[in-house]
């Protein structure tokens, strides 16, 4: 049995050897080439390749993250210097106008804007609303306008790196230092100090609440004996850019105060106000006015008690004429208690201004101080709205009756910036508070301020003008009411001085920003809002995740 098995194994072995031998003897063309197997990389080399690809991925990821960090920092820096937002309101109510931007970009002097308020409580904290209600009788919610002010103000430094904006908390020591620096400015919460250093000295101008906001009277409670106001517009652009133009101007304003014909000098407070607003004030107290240097831009005559002689009036005429170049001014403050000055008043009549005898008496009990009908409210008119922009009521006593001699004659035009109500009479000189004879006199509106402008053209065909301003009372510049923030006594006298000396600045004027609540959001429907919601909350995240999964699978298979 074993022998047979051995033979079989031998036979099979021989057969196998024969088959191998026959295969070797076949022609080469009949032999099928064997497919070579790719040599498999050693495990160490595969790990190095994976590490290299992983390193690239990590490097790319790190570069992207670094780029995002750098981009975030750049955006933060640019946001402080460049406007990166898009105003979608219908009337661009949160944007600075093109004319303003062009002016700001051309500014070549360093200007500082100091807001007397902390940025985070001006509108959000509600203190501005409290202040406006308490001092200006603002009855309606104007928080949107206060936010608009911050939005517009914050844009100023983005258009010129020479403009610096800072907010100063009124409770801080820094604000105490500011009030010490500007002791005559009578600063209030929310005021904006616009300042510029020139030639070793600083010029500044304070932009207040009534300069910034357009106020309209609200007569809802008139039946109860008082009225309130509401904010209806924002004049920040005109106010701030106009102030920038003023403080960067190289003009030096010089004004002479003549006291030689006044028994009492009533101008101390006014001199302080003018000095605080960068005027060079010179007091002339000669008994007879013999000359007025052409270096002065204007002259102030307050409550004279003795008349002028002809030679003095010739000096005034020559000063205002300025060798046919005009460009000068005269500010006169009357006093109903002063004697009638025949010569001087005739001089004023040549300028279209008449000063009558008597004292103004208010018959409307709601428009005069309690128990004193001779101390009354005077209001801005529409005749000189650009001069009185943002101003409200003035309160004065001892008002002399002023009148226009003519509206226009030759190259002289007379207008009334401020006037009384139509319930006023011109009472006899010496009338007291208890006077009962008003029924025998005609009630009418009397000018509180008259402006006479003599205008012509110079050789370059440019307008040139001299101005004479007549105020009905010395109390425009000397009374307890000057310190009332809700009154405009100071504002009107300063505005007239600015015009008289030719320092109103350029014709910078921008459209008042009115919040209409109309914007792109009004055109967004519920369906479009749902689409945007689905797109950003669901579709984009799903697509992003799907793309990530596909990339992951392909990269894994590639290994």
Number of helices: 14
User: How would you sum up the major sheet?
Assistant: 11 strands, mixed
**Poorly predicted runs:** 82-92, 517-524
Distance between the termini: 59 Å
Instruction: Quote the beta fraction.
Output: 15-25%
- What does the overall shape look like? elongated
- The pLDDT mean sits at 82
Q: Radius of gyration, Cα only, in angstroms?
A: 42 Å
Query: Which structural class should the secondary elements be placed in?
Result: alpha+beta
Please give the share of residues in helix: 25-40%
Number of strands: 21
Structure, explained:
With 559 residues, the chain is α+β, with helices and mostly antiparallel strands. 36% of the residues lie in helices and 21% in strands. It contains 14 helices and 21 strands. Strands 7, 8, 9, 10, 13, 14, 15, 17, 18, 20 and 21 form an 11-stranded mixed sheet that branches. A 4-stranded mixed sheet has the order 2-1-3-4. The chain has a two-stranded antiparallel ribbon with strand order 5-6. A hairpin with a 5-residue loop joins strand 20 (447-457) and strand 21.
List keywords for this structure.
559 residues; alpha+beta; 4-stranded mixed sheet; 14 helices; elongated
């Amino acid at each position: 049995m074993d022998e047979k098995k051995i033979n079989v194994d031998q036979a099979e072995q021989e057969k196998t050897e024969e088959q191998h031998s026959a295969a070797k003897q076949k022609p080469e063309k009949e032999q099928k080439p064997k497919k070579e197997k790719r040599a498999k990389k050693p495990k160490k080399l595969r790990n190095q390749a994976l590490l290299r690809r992983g390193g690239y991925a990590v490097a790319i990821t790190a570069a992207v993250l670094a780029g995002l960090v750098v981009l975030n920092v750049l955006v933060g820096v640019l946001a402080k210097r460049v406007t990166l937002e898009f105003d979608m309101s219908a009337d661009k109510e949160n944007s600075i106008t093109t004319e303003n931007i062009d002016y700001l970009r051309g500014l070549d002097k360093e200007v500082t804007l100091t807001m007397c308020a902390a940025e985070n409580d001006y509108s959000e904290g509600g203190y501005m609303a409290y202040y406006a209600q308490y001092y200006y009788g603002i009855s309606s919610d104007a928080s949107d306008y206060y936010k608009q002010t911050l939005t517009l103000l914050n844009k100023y430094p983005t258009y010129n790196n020479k403009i610096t904006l800072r907010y100063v908390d009124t409770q801080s020591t820094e604000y105490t230092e500011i009030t010490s620096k500007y002791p005559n400015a009578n600063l209030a919460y929310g005021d904006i100090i616009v300042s510029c250093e020139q030639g070793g000295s600083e010029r500044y101008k304070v932009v207040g609440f009534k300069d910034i906001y357009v106020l309209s009277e609200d007569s809802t409670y008139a039946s109860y004996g008082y009225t309130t106001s509401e904010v209806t517009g924002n004049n920040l652009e005109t106010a701030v850019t106009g102030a920038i133009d003023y403080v960067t101007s190289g003009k030096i304003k010089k004004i002479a105060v003549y006291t030689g014909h006044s028994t009492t000098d009533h101008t101390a407070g006014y001199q302080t106000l003018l000095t605080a607003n960068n005027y060079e004030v010179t007091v002339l107290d000669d008994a007879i006015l013999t000359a007025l240097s052409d270096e002065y831009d204007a002259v102030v005559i307050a409550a004279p008690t003795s008349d002028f002689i002809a030679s003095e009036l010739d000096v005034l005429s020559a000063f205002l004429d300025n060798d046919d170049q005009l460009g000068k001014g005269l500010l006169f403050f009357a006093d109903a208690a002063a004697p009638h000055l025949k010569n001087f008043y005739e001089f004023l009549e040549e300028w279209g201004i008449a000063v009558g005898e008597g004292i103004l008496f208010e018959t409307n009990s709601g428009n005069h101080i309690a128990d004193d009908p001779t101390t009354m409210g005077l209001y801005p008119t529409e005749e000189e709205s650009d001069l009185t922009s943002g101003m409200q009521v003035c309160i004065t006593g001892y008002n002399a009756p002023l009148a226009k001699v003519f509206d226009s004659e030759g190259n002289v035009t007379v207008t009334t910036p401020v006037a009384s109500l139509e319930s006023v009479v011109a009472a006899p000189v010496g009338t007291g508070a208890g006077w009962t004879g008003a029924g025998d006199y005609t009630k009418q509106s009397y000018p509180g301020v008259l402006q006479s402008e003599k205008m012509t053209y110079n050789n370059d065909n440019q307008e040139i003008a001299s101005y004479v301003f007549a105020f009905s009372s010395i109390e425009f510049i000397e009374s307890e009411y000057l310190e009332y923030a809700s009154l405009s006594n100071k504002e009107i006298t300063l505005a007239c001085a600015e015009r008289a000396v030719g320092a109103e600045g350029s014709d910078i004027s921008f459209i008042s920003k009115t919040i209409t609540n109309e914007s792109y959001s009004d055109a967004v429907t519920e369906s479009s809002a749902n689409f945007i919601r689905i797109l950003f909350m669901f579709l984009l995240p799903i697509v992003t995740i799907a793309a990530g999964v596909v990339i992951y699978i392909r990269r894994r298979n590639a290994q």
